[in-house]
Design brief:
Elements: E1 23-24, E2 27-28, H1 30-35, H2 50-76, H3 83-101, H4 106-119, H5 125-129, H6 135-152, H7 155-164, H8 173-188, H9 193-218, H10 231-247, H11 256-269, H12 275-300, H13 311-322, H14 327-353, H15 358-366, H16 369-379, E3 384-386, E4 391-392, H17 396-399
Antiparallel strand pairs: 1-2, 3-4
Helix pairs in contact: 2-3, 3-4, 4-16, 6-16, 7-8, 7-9, 7-13, 8-9, 8-10, 9-10, 10-12, 14-15, 14-16
């Protein structure tokens, strides 16, 4: 593989610690480079000579266009083969080119091939994914990779500050706490509960510090008070923790037990539960749980003050520091929106055309949740943040 070549250090190595062999005090860390467990390094993570860089970029560029072109061309040729065999061969040819040219990581090329087999109707998802265990495994893989991109590129913090900057929210401790609970619920519906809380904790602590400082300046608390004992702080932290548990029930990918439970139910009953069906049933339950959570939280941890000033300025400053959305953030949102849209598409079609419509039956058969999750996650390895350096939104090192 090209990652084993030795030559000068690339300028792009400065973009992160994962680029190139790890170095300690100017020395290459041989143990980390050889025994670090990496199975694939993208072009931007390698140390190549100028000629090698030029060759690798040309190879990847060729693969981006040649793989789909060959697959489509072969699927349309008048060859003496069964149609299913021809489509399977077309997918296989495309995957082989992806593996040879490596425009995407080798594991992603394989995942795209599996997805292509299901999308084209060569075989049903259950049969195609049987060697991997079940479609639940693929849903895990795709959802976790999407979540990793959201965590890496700061989508959660941007969403938190966007909600808190809504006029009127930051002026009340009650509304701040409820808003944080809402943000946590929304994020934990797609990102693991633990990761959601860990990601929002610094933002919550920053706002809590502003509230505590204002309370001290106003004389609401003694000058030598313990900020760790504030009821508003307890309410805010517990709302993050419990809010994540509530939101984790909203979608099948919100928490691993959801997917496992859904799989057991489908196996026992023989009835498939779609993403939209799960969400439709869980939404009113989650809403009721959130309302009860907020009421109990305020009864047990009534904030010392109701109205606050200064938090809006703090949030405005944080949003200003964030600046405009980066290309990586936009790409992550595109991949996330693409995935959720395909998850919900069969349900939307069923509402319009009915569950007996041919279009609904076609989409319900082809758009398996696991296949859609993998397709959406694959976009993160295709959409570039720097085309010249062939740097994608996510590397396989990030996803592995």
């Amino acid at each position: 593989m090209p990652g084993h070549r030795h030559s000068r250090r690339k300028d792009s190595d400065a973009h992160g610690p994962a680029a190139g062999p790890l170095k300690l005090s100017g020395r290459t860390d041989v143990q980390a480079a050889l025994l670090g467990g990496k199975t694939f390094r993208s072009l931007s993570e390698q140390r190549l000579s100028p000629r090698e860089e030029k060759f690798e970029r040309a190879r990847q560029t060729l693969g981006f266009f040649l793989a789909p072109a060959v697959a489509v061309t072969f699927s349309l040729l008048p060859v003496p083969m069964d149609r299913t065999q021809q489509l399977l061969a077309a997918v296989l040819l495309g995957v082989i080119i992806l593996w040879i040219c490596e425009p995407v990581p080798i594991p992603v090329g394989g995942l795209l091939g599996v997805a292509g087999v299901v999308i084209l109707g060569v075989a049903p998802a259950g049969e195609v994914l049987a060697p991997f265990g079940s479609t639940t495994i693929f849903t895990f893989i795709g959802a976790f990779i999407l979540a990793q991109a959201m965590l890496k590129h700061g989508i959660a913090q941007r969403l938190a500050f966007a909600v808190l900057s809504i006029p009127g929210v930051a002026g009340s401790t009650y509304r701040v706490i409820v808003a944080f609970g809402f943000i946590t619920c929304l994020l934990s519906a797609f990102v693991s509960n633990t990761a959601t809380v860990a990601l929002l904790m610094p933002t919550a602590l920053g706002i809590l510090a502003v509230i505590a400082q204002l309370m001290q300046d106003r004389g609401v608390v003694r000058a030598d008070f313990d900020p760790l004992r504030l009821r508003v702080g307890a309410a805010l932290m517990l709302m993050l923790a419990y809010g994540a548990s509530v939101g984790g029930l909203l979608t099948p990918v919100g928490s691993p037990p959801n997917l496992i439970g859904r799989g057991l139910i489908e196996e026992a009953t023989g009835v498939r539960i779609s993403f939209a069906q799960w969400t439709a049933v869980a939404a009113p339950l989650c809403l009721a749980m959130f309302v009860v959570l907020a009421l109990i939280m305020f009864l047990l941890n009534k904030p010392e003050v109701r109205q606050i000033e200064g938090v809006e300025e703090y949030i405005r400053g944080q949003r200003s520091a964030q600046g405009r959305m980066s290309r990586a953030e936009v790409n992550t949102l595109v991949a996330f929106g693409f995935t959720v849209s395909l998850w919900l598409l069969p349900a939307v079609v069923s509402l319009i055309a009915g569950t007996d419509a041919g279009l609904y039956l076609f989409l319900d058969d082809r758009l398996d949740d696991g296949i859609v999750a993998v397709l959406g996650a694959s976009l993160l390895f295709i959409l570039p943040t720097n085309w010249k350096e062939r740097r994608a939104t996510l590397t396989w090192s990030d996803a592995a």
